[in-house]
Structures are given as C-alpha cells and as structure tokens.
Amino acid sequence: MRIRWPTRVSAQVLVIQLALTTGVTALATGLFLAPFSSEIDDQATSRALAIARTTTADPQITRELLTTAPSPTGPVQRDAERIRKATGALYIVVMDTRGVRWSHTNPARIGRHVSTDPSRALAGEEVRQIDTGTLGRSARAKAPLRDSSGKIVGAVSVGISYGSVREKLFAEVPRLLSYAGIALGAGVLAALVVARRLRRRTHGVAFADISALLDEREAMLHGIREGVVAVDRHGRVRMVNDEAQRLLGLGPQDAGRPLDELLPPGRTADVLTGRVAGADLLTISSGRVLVVNRMPTRDGGAVATLRDRTELELLGRELDSTHGLLDVLRAKDHEHANRLHTVLGLLELGRHERAMEFVAEVTDAHSASVDQIAERVHDPLLAALIVGKTTIAAERGVALRLSTDTLLPDRVVDPRDLVTVLGNLIDNALEAVTAHRRADAFIEIELRTEHTTVVLQVSDTGPGVPPELRERVFEEGWSTKEPPGGSSTPAAAPAATPGSARPVAVPRGRGLGLAMIRRLAERYGGMARVSARAGGGAVFTVVLPEALSVERAPDRLLTAEGESR
User: What are the Low complexity biased-composition ranges (predicted)?
Assistant: First the structure.
C-alpha cells in the first residue's frame, strides 16, 4: 500500500519535524554510545595493565620464575592464581623470555607456548588491546617482567573477560534510551504544538494552495485600478502596488521605509498612518483627489486602499458648470420674459416710442456690461465665466463687479486652471454674501498680472473668516458652507465672529474647493491666502506664477473689434 504524502502545510511540517526529531535523537544516541564503548574498552585494558604491573612488581614471582621449573603446582602458578582471584581477572599468564607459560587458568596449558605474540612485551613495551586468545575474546594487557638489575626475564599477560565489558555497556543502554525517549517525546510534543499553531495560522491550506494564493494576490494587487499600501506596526511600507505608486509618487525601492519619510507632511500622510481615522476619507496628493480607507491588521499594521476621484471631481465640476449655465439661462429667460411683457404692455398702451426707448436701454446696458468685461478680461473662457456669474449674482440680488485694476491679457497658459480657481472663489463668495445679507452686498473681482504672474483676488461683504481659521479653511475636509439645518455646528468648530450670521469653517464631508485651489497654486509655485476686507467680509487672493506665456499672443477680441470698426 502506497503511503500518500500529506498536502496540508501543518501535516507536512509535523511529519518533517517528527522525522528530524527521531533522526537527531538516534544520531545523538549513536554518537554518545560510540565514545562510551571506547571509553569502557579503555577502562578495561587500563585495569588489565594495572593488574599486570602489580604482578610484575612482586619480586617473589621473579625469583620463582628464575629458580623453578614451570609446573601446574609450582609457586609461580600458585601466586598468579592468588592475584587473579583477588582481582577478578579472567587469566594471569606468566611467561619466560621464550614465551613459555609458567601460569595459566587451565593448568594443562602450563609449559606450552603462548597463543599470541609476546615479542613487544619481551622487548620492554607495555601492550593494551582487545584480542582473542585460548580463553576467548578479552581485554588484555602485557607488561615486561624484570629482575632486580632491570633485565627482562619474562612477561606477564593479564586478561579481563570482554563479556563483562559488553555487559557494562549494555547495562547503560536502557538508561541512554530512556533519555533519548524523553527527548524524542519532548520533540514530538513541540512538533504537535507547532503544527497546531501553524494549522491555525494557515487555515489548513496546502503548499500548492499557498503558492496559488500568492500568485493570485500579486496578480490582483498589481492588476486592480485601486491603490493598495500595506504598512507594519512601525509605519514602514511592506507592500505598495502599481496604482498606489502612481498616485503617491512612490517606487518599489521605497518598501521598508516609514511613510512619514516618503510623504510630505499633511492630510495624506496623517490618513495613511492612522493619525486621522474614518471611512472614505478625502485627501489630495499631487493634485489628485483620493478617497482613502484604512483597515488595521492583527499584527498592529494596516492596509490602506486609495481610489482616484479626480475624474469624478472633474465631472462634478462640469456638472456644476452645467447647473450654473442652466441657472444663467433660467435667469435670462425670466429676465427676458419680464422685458417682453413690459414691451407688450407699452405696445398695447400705444406708447410705441417708449417701447423702442426701453428696448434700446436694455440692449445698451447689456452690451455695456459685456463690453466692459471683454475689455478687461481678454481670455474668452474667463470672460464667459464672469458674464455667467454676473447674471446669477444679479438674480440673487448681489452685485458682481470688476475692479478698475483688472486687466488680463490673452496669454494664459492653461485657462482651465484659472476658471477652476475663479469659479470656486466666486461660488464661495456668493454663498457667503447670500447667507449674510446686507443692503450693499457685492462681490468684487480683480485679475491683474505681474510679468508672467497672475494674481486673482475675490472680495465679498460676507461674514469673513476669523484669523484662527484662515489656514484651516484650505485643509481637506473643511468647508466654509453652513451645514444643513444651520445649527448643527460641531462643538469642535470655533464660533463665528461677532456680527456673523453663520458659522465659519465647519467640518464637512466635502470641503475640497479651497484645498484644491491651494494645491493648484502650489503646483504653480504660488500661494493662496485669505484676509479680512476693510468694512467687513473676506478677501481671497491666489497667486499663480508662470501662468502667462512670455510671447504675446494676438489679442483676438481687440483684433475682431478693430476689423468690425
């Protein structure tokens, strides 16, 4: 029957750990027993040598060897057996220089030549070895036997039964195996604990599944059109996909570095690091409007997702422009209907001359207003924006006028940026003035240039912005609009200035207009600020360096007027 290899990670780790633990335990036991056996052999041969030395040190045995003949009942045999029995040796053989035995455990072998070579001992060398003789395998030692003058007259061979040595070794084996079993049991228990923990962490998936999950994860992270940034508990980047690199200006080499070092100080860094909490948080990075969601992980880190809402914001602005155009058309239609009714009434009353005068007055007033704007603002997009906003402001009872210092040539590099800035500033001013109604309510626009720099300034007679909030109104998530209901100002929001009819800079979910203006100005290398207007109200100033081209373009409007004349 074929044994199948387990597929789950925890089972494979358990099998591998058990095999490793068993192998290491067996190896350690073998490595311990090998020197232990050699040590026991060494102890046995050392003991045999000690007995041999003791025997050779007895002068009586030397005299008896020189004065008597080898005999089973001789004095040499008698003294050797006495020492053997006293020491527990297997045998003690006393031999002369010819290798003839003078003593032996078996008396019948006395007078015969020894079975092993005695030449080394008879040459004066002590010998220790494990060898096989007439009495079997034994641990033996040989020592030279000398007379009183130091002359070698024979040798003594002592043997210790090798079986007793093996018995000692085998006697130690159970104890060693018990220790090995304890170590193996501890290893198995540790393997089970590790496998169980690993099974919980891997949810019982197999190695193939993990590999497939990693491949799918990489494909998903780098294929989706949503930015993903993973950070550890210390705020260091663990992973950043392609879209997040594009949105945040990061690269693959930034992995392992703290987010605070990679991103400039601001709301984006605060949101991604968790210093600002919430869902669907709006922030601006490199001129892009991002929606950020941050989800903490169990190890103390977090995964943040980023969605690019720039296109959606642009569509929203286009929709706002469309609504503005509809408001303008609605106002024009209402105004036109009133004028037609007036003309119709004058005609029915028979006052034809007065009707003609009224039509001329209306036409001249409108032409004068349009001509005034066209003379001072030569860019057609900005001029059209101001004309439309003027009509909307008039319908709300607010005068929208141009400053006498306004003069913008037709050399704007990107008119859309100026339309974005000016449109947002006029809308904010119009809402502030409408909410803070005054008899002389007005909005004043000033567009002037300094070489290639454009300075846009919008003043209003609204409630103004308190000094402590003049920086915060340019942050993402803040708005100068009053929340619905008018009285839902959060406790954290500062109170309005004395005389103000509405709260100022109340935190809202949107509040991106002024933040976008500041980021756009910073992208040009300029700035955006708000100050107080003399007589009450606010003055928003935006400076855009290099917003005008160096080369003077033909003034299309003036040329057209010259041709018409």
Answer: 483-501
List for the chain the helix, strand, coil content (%; round to 5): 50, 20, 30
CB proximity list for 48: less than 8 A, separation 6 or greater: 89, 128, 139, 140, 141, 158, 159, 160
CA distances from 564 to 18, 187, 315, 450 (A): 99, 101, 38, 31
- CB within 8 Å of 127: residues ≥ 6 apart: 120, 121, 140, 141, 142, 143
Q: What is the pLDDT of residues 338-396, one digit of tens each?
A: 767 777 777 777 777 777 776 666 655 554 467 778 888 888 888 888 888 887 787 77
> Cα separations (Å) of 358 from 351, 390, 409, 415, 503?
11, 22, 35, 37, 44
Sheet with 136-146: list strands edge to edge. Answer: 91-96, 152-161, 136-146, 127-133
So what's the pLDDT on residue 498? 35
Q: How far is 472 from 474, CA to CA, in rounded Å?
A: 5
Q: What DSSP element (H or E) covers 285?
A: strand 281-285
- Tens digit of pLDDT for each residue in 418-449? 888 888 899 888 888 888 877 788 999 999 99
Q: Using only C-alpha atoms, what is the Rg of the chain?
A: 54
Residue 406 to residues 167, 255, 370: CA-CA distances in angstroms? 115, 51, 15
Spell out the alpha helix ranges (H) of 203-266: 207-223, 242-248, 259-262
Could you tell me which of 9, 44, 229 has the C-alpha nearest to residue 130? 44
The CATH superfamily label for domain 9-168 reads PAS domain (3.30.450.20)
Is the pTM higher than 0.90? The answer reads no
122: tokens are 């008879």
Domain residues of the chain, as ranges? 9-168, 224-308, 373-557
The widest CA-to-CA distance across the chain, in whole angstroms, is 182
Domain 373-557 listed as CATH 3.30.565.10: yes
Q: Where are the alpha helices (DSSP H) in 377-499?
A: 380-395, 415-435
HSE value, Cβ hemisphere, 13 Å, CA-based, for 444 = 16
> 10 Å Cβ neighbour count for 426?
24
Residue 492 has pLDDT above 80, yes or no: no
Topology, domain 224-308: Beta-Lactamase (3.30.450)
- Cβ neighbourhood burial of 131 (10 Å; 0-12, 13-18, 19+): middle
